[in-house]
Design a protein that fits this description.
alpha/beta; TIM Barrel; eight-stranded parallel beta sheet; 8 strands; 45% helix; globular; Dihydrodipicolinate synthase family protein
């Protein structure tokens, strides 16, 4: 059982300089997330460089995360596969090794029809008892999960949440108007984080949280407590950093930010390579400017929610 609400980081995967999993830095980052008050963690997403991970590495990440969080927050694994058979196998294995939830992307590399996409998601959902979040990101993955498709998907009781990344913020309201409490809605776009929460999103699957967990959770908790102006002040400072998330190089960008805050390294897995030249200077300038003006956060833990 997952309480689908709050800030859930799409964690980066930490690598050593010789391209092995860096479990020591992974643990340091997860502990920083928990200290800040995140409500769950998601492994093996786009930010987690999922397409480059071997099955045994995904298993290691799940088991390591479970040992770190000790049941305090749920560990969710993303599924991004090319075949239904492969996706079902990943889902079943994730459940076997202890993952507590799944986030599902549409089929990779094939632009499935609406009918095929629904059939794909249902096949995975029916193969496992784990609770599921559907990831709706037509901008990057070219397949949109429409309201009518979502209606069909909710026939599966374990499909319970959606990561809404269409970039159309009004879709948060459309989803809630249509489905009410039947579906929990998370924003999946960092630069629409505060706005989505203000209009009623249940949570935020965030990216820059990997480097700035406290600032991200503070925005969520302040909004839920009705302290919009305080949340907005942090968000205005945060925006140049949040824009680093909406880029093909989001992994490199966010890993550079993790270096600045001491909870990550710059190591990525090829074909990704560390940023070079003018683009590297630009991103570092954004990070350095933010670090020089990092706000003092109000006491955001244990606020009384008014939402």
């Amino acid at each position: 059982m997952i309480k689908w609400e709050g800030v859930m980081p799409a964690l980066t995967t930490k690598f050593t300089s010789d391209d092995q999993l860096d479990l020591a830095m992974f643990e340091k980052n997860v502990k920083a997330q928990m200290e800040a008050g995140v409500h769950g963690i998601i492994l093996g997403g786009t930010l987690g460089e999922a397409s480059t991970l071997e099955p045994h590495e995904k298993e290691t990440l799940i088991k390591t995360a479970l040992s770190i969080v000790e049941g305090k927050i749920p560990v969710i694994i993303n599924i991004a596969e090319q075949s239904t058979k492969g996706a079902v196998a990943v889902a079943q294995h994730a459940e076997k090794v202890g993952a507590q939830g799944l986030m599902l992307l549409p089929p990779m590399r094939y632009k499935a029809t609406d009918y095929e996409t629904v059939a794909y998601f249902k096949a995975i959902a029916n193969s496992t008892s784990l609770p599921i979040m559907i990831y709706n990101n037509p901008v990057d993955y070219k397949i949109e999960v429409t309201l009518d498709m979502m209606e069909e998907l909710l026939e599966c009781e374990n499909i319970q949440a959606i990561k809404e990344s269409t970039r159309d913020i009004t879709n948060v309201i459309r989803l809630q108007n249509r489905f009410g409490d039947r579906l929990k809605v998370f924003t999946g776009v960092d630069t629409l984080g505060l706005e989505s929460l203000v209009i009623g999103a249940d949570g935020w699957v965030a990216g820059l949280v990997c480097a700035y967990p406290a600032e991200t959770v503070a925005i969520y908790e302040l909004v839920k407590a009705g302290k919009i102006e305080e949340a907005l002040q942090i968000y205005k400072w945060f925006m140049p950093l949040l824009e680093l998330d909406i880029s093909p190089q989001l992994v490199q960008n966010i890993k550079l930010a993790e270096v600045a805050t001491g909870i990550g390294t710059e190591n990525v897995r090829a074909p990704r390579l560390p940023l070079q030249g003018e683009e590297r200077k630009r991103v570092l300038n954004v990070i350095e400017t933010a670090m020089a003006t990092r706000p003092e956060l109000p006491e955001y833990k244990n606020l009384k929610s008014v939402v």
